[in-house]
Design brief:
Blueprint lengths: L1 E11 L4 E10 L2 E6 L8 E4 L4 E4 L1 E3 L7 H8 L3 E6 L7 H11 L4 E4 L1 E2 H10 L7 H8 L10 H16 L5 E3 L9 H14 L3 E3 L15 H12 L3 E3 L2 H5 L3 H13 L4 E5 L4 E5 L7 H6 L7 E3 L9 H10 L4 E5 L6 H12 L4 E2 L29 H16 L5 H15 L21 E4 L20 E6 L2 E5 L2 E2 L15
Parallel strand pairs: 1-4, 1-5, 6-7, 7-8, 9-10, 10-11, 11-12, 12-13, 13-17
Antiparallel strand pairs: 1-2, 2-3, 5-18, 14-16, 15-16, 18-19, 19-20, 20-21
Organism: Amycolatopsis nalaikhensis
Pfam families: Amidohydro_3
Protein name: Amidohydrolase family protein
Length: about 500
């Protein structure tokens, strides 16, 4: 299949080009970029007045369903990768995704949490995000390890890397009291294997003075000591009101040569399982939050008090919930979100959550999605909302900078572990034909906390491996061109 995108504003963060041009796709590859291209055998698509750029590469998506990936496709995403949590066993995760088919490219990290749960709590992993959520509230895997246990779960991670994991996902924030030496051991493993880590850091010292080590200090210290490439997940949600200090810590470390990268998303509320360690009432209080900051997704219940929160955590620790950490209606707190996104070289990543319905099912081939689906609005709207805020409304980013943050820089984080990623995030000749075409005046999010499965608007076309997944603003329900992105061990 050959497709000629004619006359659009082509934005290529790989070369720095931003101008009117044609883009010729030949199968899954960008064949040419230039003016007045001649390709009589190609299907021609008039994209004049639209912005053409490399599809968005989401390093932090917990979406493992066709339904969820379709929402992300309408948001401009061409690769949805679960790297913060990961799945285990990795071979099963890739096999099941391939069997079901995916609209978008997919990939997984080696799961630090699942490896520890297997060794410390005898919980066998099943490559499922649902079982992973159930494990989060289980205290048996959250303790420190003996030397024998440490060696055992490090060995499991090594095996997952050999099987193609895209680095190591570390949910340190879910086991915040563990011995800091264990985190350093994982960093050494990553450095020796030449793979990145992706960390949900533990609490900040301002929040919990008794924490073994400040979360942001820990990640930069480990990166500096071991030389590992270490990615700080959702700096907005883990830093909250302390974003100034955290970003200054990261900036200093990077200036001193540490390989620390960072991501953010444009929402003032996060989402996780209600049994997570940092939703324990005492820890909420340390953050200046209350039980009423927690909303149970399936029922819409806003938790009324500590007694009710403890009851839900005890009875249903895997229940997905929303945790409000910043008030987006408050100008000062909204500015903190903007600050995280604007931080130099911060990439955009969604932390997209699973989509489910009250009858318990999480998979559907219906489109539009059936009513009543629950998830976080960031699943459907992260990229469109970021473009609206940072390009259209504030002018903080040019279109070139937006594609650099959403496509180019995320791909470069993967270059060493997955050489195939070098063809992503740009529109040079030979690049992967993963392309998004946007209406610059119309692109916006529509998902809300009360109606979170409303697709974004303004993505006119989306090509994944050269196959149109979105045409003229409509999703093609027959398109399943997603391919695995896998690590290649040394």
């Amino acid at each position: 299949m050959r497709t000629l995108l004619r006359g659009g504003r082509v934005v290529d963060p790989g070369s720095g080009f931003d101008g009117i041009a044609d883009v010729l796709l030949d199968g899954d590859t960008v064949e040419a970029v230039g003016t007045a291209l001649d390709a009589p055998d190609a299907t021609e698509v008039d994209v004049s007045g639209l912005v053409v750029g490399p599809g968005f590469v989401d390093l932090h998506s917990h979406v493992h369903s066709i339904a969820g990936q379709r929402l992300q496709a309408m948001d401009g995403v061409t690769a949805a990768l679960d790297l913060e949590a990961g799945l285990m066993p990795i071979e099963r995760a890739y096999a099941e995704a391939a069997k079901a088919g995916r609209p978008l490219h997919y990939g997984f990290s080696a799961s630090w949490g699942a490896a520890r749960a297997q060794v410390l709590a005898n919980i066998a992993p099943d490559a499922s995000i649902d079982s992973g959520l159930a494990v989060l509230g289980n205290p048996r895997w959250q303790r420190s390890s003996s030397k024998t246990e440490l060696a055992a779960w490090l060995s499991l991670l090594e095996g997952e890397l050999a099987d193609g994991a895209l680095g190591i996902g570390i949910l340190m924030g879910y086991a915040p009291a563990t011995e800091p030496g264990e985190f350093l051991a994982v960093a050494r493993l990553a450095a020796n294997a030449g793979v990145p880590t992706y960390t949900h850091v533990r609490e900040l010292v301002e929040v919990d003075p008794a924490i073994p080590v400040d979360g942001s200090v820990e990640i930069v210290a480990a990166a500096g000591e071991t030389g590992a490439a270490m990615h700080h997940c959702h700096v907005n949600s883990t830093s909250g009101h302390h974003i100034d200090r955290v970003l200054a810590t990261l900036d200093t470390a990077r200036r001193e040569g540490s390989r620390v990268t960072v991501e953010a998303y444009p929402y003032g509320a996060g989402s996780t399982a209600v049994g997570a360690a940092f939703i324990e009432p005492d820890r909420l209080r340390m953050k200046g939050l209350r039980p009423s900051s927690v909303v149970i997704l399936e029922t819409g219940e806003r938790v009324r008090d500590e007694a009710r929160l403890r009851q839900i955590r005890r009875d249903d620790p895997a229940a997905p919930c929303i945790l409000e950490f910043l008030d987006e209606e408050n100008p000062r707190e909204r500015a903190l979100l903007h600050q995280a996104l604007a931080f130099p070289d911060a990439v955009v990543a969604s932390d997209a959550m699973p989509v489910s319905w009250k009858d318990g099912h999480s998979e559907t081939t219906e489109w539009p999605l059936p009513p009543g689906g629950t998830t976080h609005p960031r699943t459907a709207g992260t990229y469109a909302k970021t473009l609206r805020l940072m390009v259209r409304e504030s002018g903080a980013w040019s279109w070139l900078e937006a594609f650099r943050r959403c496509s180019y820089l995320p791909s470069r984080i993967l270059d060493d572990v997955a050489p195939a990623a070098r063809r992503k995030g740009h529109l040079g000749v030979g690049a992967d034909a993963d392309v998004v075409v946007l209406d610059p005046a119309a692109v916006t999010d529509t998902a809300t906390y009360t109606d979170p499965t409303r697709p974004s608007k303004g993505v006119r076309h989306l090509f994944v491996a050269g196959v149109p997944v979105v045409r003229d603003g409509a999703l093609d329900t027959e398109a399943f061109p997603g391919q695995p992105l896998r690590g290649e061990p040394k």
